[in-house]
What does this fold into?
Amino acid sequence: MDSIKSFKGYGKVNEIEDQAFRRNTRKRMLIIAVSIVVLLTVIIAAVVGVVVHKSNNDDDNATSSSSTPMTLSDSIKAVCGVTQYPNSCFSSLSSLEKQGTSSNKAADPEELFKLCMEAAVKELSKLSTLPENLIARVNDVREKAALVDCQGLYEEAINQVNTSIFTMQSDGTGNLLTASKIDDMKTWLSAALTDLQTCLDGLEETNSASLDEVRKSMQNSTELTSNSLAIASKILTLLQTFDLNIHRRRKLLGFGFPEWIGPADRKLLQQVNYEPNVTVAKDGTGKFKTITEAVEAVPKQSKSRFVIYVKGGVYEENVVVDKSKWNVMMYGDGKTKTIISGNRSFVGGTPTFATATLVAVGRGFMAMDIGVRNTAGPENHQAVALRSGSDLSVFYRCSFDAYQDTLYAHSNRQFYRDCDISGTIDFIFGNAAVVFQRCNIQPRQPMTNQYNTITAQGKTDPNQNTGISIQRCLISPFDNVTALTYLGRPWKNYSTTVIMQSGIASIVDPTGWIPWIPNTTPPSTIFYAEYYNTGPGSNLDKRVKWEGYKPNITDEQASKFTVASFIRGSDWLPQTTVSYDSSLE
It folds into this structure.
């Protein structure tokens, strides 16, 4: 209480003192305010300095980290970790560790990828003499022919992998890999695996006693090729894992023209009217009387389009456009007027692979307004009209007519538009990345006790970028079909087939699909799907219930099988003047 009184007495001031106090207070407040501003400035500067210093240290550390060579062992583990056969991968790259190699170049996943492909080529080359050695002790004509096919398939597989290795070279901007290069390599490595599997398929269908020996001999080359494909599929992820200057890789702007098409040809391809280099006519009014003669006149590995005009008529010959014949365009007077006809068949003594009336392997093949048929008949079983392994090949307004195995879309990227395809069993088959668009797909009456299967897709490796896409086509009978008819059956463990936005007539059984082995559920690893189809045969209520069958895929899933996404057709089809639908719209 006393203290309070005392305080009050102490605190009492007169007016003059109060004015002086106010003046001094204002002065002190101004000084304090200025001091606070100065102090805050100092504090902020200090904090910023610390942050900047830390940021600089972090950047230095990051730079130091990214510039610090990764261990070769870690890089090999990461690269081999994405493969189907890691033991083979480790073995193929182990020599680097034994040599004590520790350079950035050797540890770079790109370099390891290249070394893995080189190891695959080395193993593939070891197979070159195998068929010849086996042929010497084989008496069966068909088995010998299958071994001859293996010889050519090995050579083609080597070519596919070597082309991938060549693609690894810098493009002049310091970029070893770009998205377009990776897509190319995935295609070619997928094709190499298909070549190897085709050899085994041929020996299996001929009941070859050499099958097991060949399969064992092919094991290393198959595994290393598969590993190369797996690495190609995951290479960008691997590069990000090791923080390897991803920014130095230019953004893909599109394929543009294929690298094997020259500037002059680009101008030609933009024209609708093609000026033929040679004309084929049975009546002698052209330069050649046979198509085979015209193909022989094509320059090897030409970057310019070589145009062959085939006048109306039926040409009874087996035509082969081999891997050395690039950019061949063949056109006729119409698919019912210019016809290539053959009759080779499996029952007639020829392995399926070699029965084709028209074979296209050379890059960039194009056929227009031509019919191709195999007249062997259903009683002769496998008898192919067309076999194509041509990358970036186009078939426009063509017809393909046979019974079993009519159209063999063997490998690489292919596009079919406004074509007619007729057959019975597996009449669209193979392991290409292929899109059929606005085609007439026509099952026909098979032999007694047979049923029709439209497709048989042959994907054997999860990393292959292959499959059959049927978009905006019409599936309807060729003739009076009473046999059960199915959309397809999965030929291999990773078979991939999508039918979308197509009209399906009542000819198709309500179950839609059938297993390769009767009464056996296909593996869950297949991908079979339908998307917005119409017609009485498109009803999904009674479709198969396989785990790998998707009756209603999403827009996003379906878009992966369009021309633009599946074969990247929007980047190369415009230059062919062929009509196409790039998307689902």
